[in-house]
From TrEMBL:
It is an enzyme of class 2 (transferase). This is 4-hydroxybenzoate octaprenyltransferase. Catalyzes the prenylation of para-hydroxybenzoate (PHB) with an all-trans polyprenyl group. Mediates the second step in the final reaction sequence of ubiquinone-8 (UQ-8) biosynthesis, which is the condensation of the polyisoprenoid side chain with PHB, generating the first membrane-bound Q intermediate 3-octaprenyl-4-hydroxybenzoate. It holds the Pfam family UbiA.
Length: 326
């Protein structure tokens, strides 16, 4: 179970307003205007790894699509628009999650310092903040083509359902994966104008990856979750966590390799295929490293490994980008 630390002044994170699992010294807590901090914390701006994990599947898709069908200048906007949109929609999604989970969060050591259960933000103000973020993200979405806009709107169903999954299934990580990797479908479509098999394979790869990293994350709370009746794959897998993560890691790597082969074998040169597969191999090597260093009973180690998945996910982005030039 994760434990909250104290500051050099002896204050708890709750006393400072800082969230327990935020990176110490982050810019929200040290540089943002004080009146904005509770809302930025509500959006998880003090814990940016989640934004990266939402954004990375978008970048997988747009770079692989560009390597497959050719780079377009609009791709630069897709890359940037997805980055801004990921920050906004992750913020809106986390705000919605905290609104629905406020009573659960109050009973978990790691989450009771979040803005709503700690009293920094009222539920009414949180709803307003959520709507503002979502509307701003919508302004970005409507700059894409019609098919991508439709996909973006459809994703709201998954965003709405996810916070409730932990109440009725031991697979909330799968629901998170369905929502968090939707950007792979959207970004591919924003480039090509329609869905394709490579996008679907990337989407499925991302879902398996999300189950991998979010199970590690969920091990921080497994004791509290068991006490209050919240379900997770960490509780479901138990002592078999390492084996199950190995299986999902293999599935993620295999599906990503399939996406590369389908996207590039007939539309790009052999060099592009090799470069793309090198990115998949690097991604797989990083997941293997995580498994070698996993201690599911060490909450701090689980948090470090979870955060390391930003680097894991960026490896394919780099090599898919290089494949465009191959």
């Amino acid at each position: 179970m994760a434990t909250s630390d104290t500051s050099q002044t002896g204050e708890t994170p709750e006393a400072e307003g800082r969230v327990a699992d935020a990176v110490r010294g982050n810019r929200v807590d040290t540089q943002a205007p004080p009146w904005t901090r509770p809302y930025l914390r509500l959006s998880r701006a003090d814990r940016p790894v989640g934004t990266w994990l939402l954004l990375i599947p978008c970048w997988w898709a747009v770079t692989l699509a560009a390597a497959s069908t050719g780079f377009l200048w609009i791709d630069l906007w897709i890359v940037l628009g997805c980055a801004i949109g990921a920050w906004l929609m992750r913020g809106a999604g986390c705000t919605w999650n905290d609104i629905t989970d406020r009573e659960i969060d109050a009973g978990v050591a790691r989450t009771r310092s979040r803005p709503i259960p700690s009293g920094q933000v009222t539920v009414q103000n949180a709803v307003v903040w959520m709507v503002l973020q979502a509307l701003t993200a919508f302004l970005i979405l409507i700059t894409f083509n019609t098919a991508a806009i439709a996909l973006g709107i459809a994703s709201l169903v998954l965003v709405a359902v996810y916070p409730f999954a932990k109440r009725f299934t031991y697979w909330p990580q799968m629901f998170l994966g369905l929502a968090f990797n939707w950007g792979a479908l959207l970004a591919w479509t924003a480039h090509t104008g329609s869905l394709g098999w490579p996008a679907l394979f990337l989407y499925l790869s991302g879902i398996a990856w999300t189950i991998f990293y979010d199970t590690i994350y969920a091990h921080q709370d497994k004791e509290d979750d068991a006490l209050i009746g919240v379900k997770s794959t960490a509780l479901l897998f138990g002592d078999q966590t390492a084996l199950r993560l190995q299986q999902f890691g293999i599935a993620s790597v295999g599906l990503m390799a399939l996406a590369v082969l389908v996207a590039l074998t007939h539309s790009a040169g052999q060099t592009a295929v090799i470069v793309g597969l090198m990115g998949v191999a690097g991604f797989g090597a990083h997941l293997y490293w995580q498994l070698r260093n996993l201690d599911a009973d060490d909450a701090d180690a689980c948090l470090r490994l979870f955060r390391a998945n930003r680097d894991a996910g960026l490896i394919p982005v780099l090599f898919f980008g290089l494949a465009i030039l191959a």
